[in-house]
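Late entry, evening session. Most of the bench is empty. Finally got around to the prediction I had been postponing all week. Sequence below, unchanged from the version circulated by S.P.
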Amino acid sequence: MLHNTSQLTDSLCAVLFKLSPYNYERIEVVLKIIQAADDTVTTFSVSQAMGLLQHLKSYKRVSPPSDVETEYLLENSLMPNLLFNRRLPFHPLMQNKHYWKIISPELSEETFPTLLLISKLMKVSLDKLYMAAVNYVFEKKMKPLVLEQRKKAQDHRYNKETFKVAKTMMKYIQCIQNQELATATAHQIAQELPAGYEKTQSLRFCLALGDAWLKDPNLDGAARAKGEIFLSKLKLQFQRSATENTLMVSRLNDPEHLKLTRQPSWLLVALYEHSSVEQRYRDCGIQVHPDIHAVVKEIATINNVDLLKIRNMMLEKWICKTGPAVTKDIGNRECVSNMEEDPDLMRVVYMLQAFPINDAVRVLNPILSAENWPLSTSGPRLTFCHRARALLCLVRLADSDTLEAHLQIPRNKMKYYLKCYIFVSQLEALNIPYTVQSFLSSPKEGLVKGLWKNHSHEPQAVRLVADLCLEYQVYDPQLWNSLLQKLLGFNLICHLQKVLEALVAVPALWEISSFSRTWRSMILAPFVSASLPLTPDQQAMLYRTFVLLLKCPFLLNLDLIGIANRFAQFNLPAFALGALLLVPSANKKAQQIQGFLSGCNPVAVLDQVDELMNTGELAGVPSQIRETVLTFISEKGQYQKLLKTKHLKHLKQLMVSSGQPSQVKDLLDCLISQNCQDDADSLAREFMKHRENQRGKTLTNGSPSPSSINEFLNMQNGVSG
């Protein structure tokens, strides 16, 4: 038999596959004998088998034996042994039986180099191996990492850890020879990622692979058509993902915005109408707002949207508003310097701030003189209301030099011209044709009287007449007598309040019969229409009523105690106390204030002083109200009501500046008994410092507690002694 190598080889080949697939030592002995026999083996490649064995000997398995291995042992009547926990089975791999079921569980970044060598040796599909490696890295590394980051609410930007894992996956994908397969693998991974930076970058990578696939010159027509359809859909998916990620990074990913990611043009419109655009004008820089300009620019770039077209469309929408409400708003005299009541004009200014000032002015300037909307071929016919709105935006956008250069309006007359545009727009709303030039040259008293004669039955005209009279100092007593009655009759309360405040400076009109009656009605009317709980508008109205009360030239003729009671009924004790402070009789005033403060919560009064009287137009009234409350608390010894409140510092300041030593001692005792040692120390020190300064001396002891308190007590004992 030894001389018949062919029979020996056949026998050994048969024996080889009956050995345990985990007993590499015996398999190696048999293979070496077959190799030494140097006879032809038809069933397998001996060199390939030896190469596989060498790789397996250097490899330690990382996964438990699979079911296919157990089945293989049973089918071949082989017994499992301890080696199968550490070794991969030789025979199934050599015969390519269940190759991927055995290899796939073994995949990791550490084992991949050896498994790649084995796969190359066994001439299996390397593309399939790379795909399996990609899936392994994604499931075991990338997905848990991304989900953990989302769970921790980490930012949706670049992350070093995920980038490292993604780089490994990209390296494997780029090794896949079949471009279609590589693109499909990358796309499958991207599909499973949650929205965010990683998904967007994965889809960007897919697009690059798809482009490379379609550049293959050997691609047939059907495959190319299929690839183009796939790439078209992939591009849309990438754009949507990149848009979502931009919204997430900027914290603008609310449901309404996310719904519009398929309609980027409408999304850009919605972003410019975001509430933060208005808030940034009202907050005066207190809050941090999203950079809408940057977000819009990025989303427009991602989706290839013409941003200038969007800009022109939005300008038309915001500037060319129509209807009586617009004329009413633009007619407000305060709007000359304040556009905070018109969110659309705030949006115009904000949007144009993204452009150079000269460009922004060049966009709006033609609106002032054009007949039709100049930024499109089918825009609306322009009215003076539209022109006034555009000019208001220009005044807010540009400095005086720029405006003078572009508009040919002297810088010192810019606001006056804006008023004229507003007046002309209001005349236009009444179907009275004027241009700005004809308005400027017209005699205003004649205009006012003609307007009154023909349009006094229209509230809008009555309001305009009042504004024109105030602007051009038309103070005809007979006209104003009728005008005040009409303003009151049309219930134009807000406007009438401003008119009366302006007429305080015109004593010549105080004698007309309707003047005092209108004042009284205006002060009392808001109490009739208001109801608890007060709406923000009603609260603002009552605030204006208090301002009007302070300016009323007929104060002595008003029932101030009754007005104070009405303020109190609407939970406005600070305003009620303010009204009582206006009572002319000192005895009556003191009696009413004592009774009022005895029955109300002094902290609530002080809170309202801080919250509702901080506008700066009430002069010294808020501090007078505060001092009255603090003096009452001091006299009644009710210090504990202010402990742990923000008002304690004001009480301490009052005690230091005008308090008697006995009152200061009472407050000190209260603070110490309530464990407010720091407040007690500062009170004693500031009081002693103030007392010594009044005597022209300087405190010799500059140290803090307990010296200041002791020094005060020594001084107090000396006084009482």
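Two things to note before I forget:
The chain has six domains: 5-122, 128-249, 261-305, 307-441, 443-530, 646-720.
Residues 128-249 form one domain.
Will write this up properly tomorrow.
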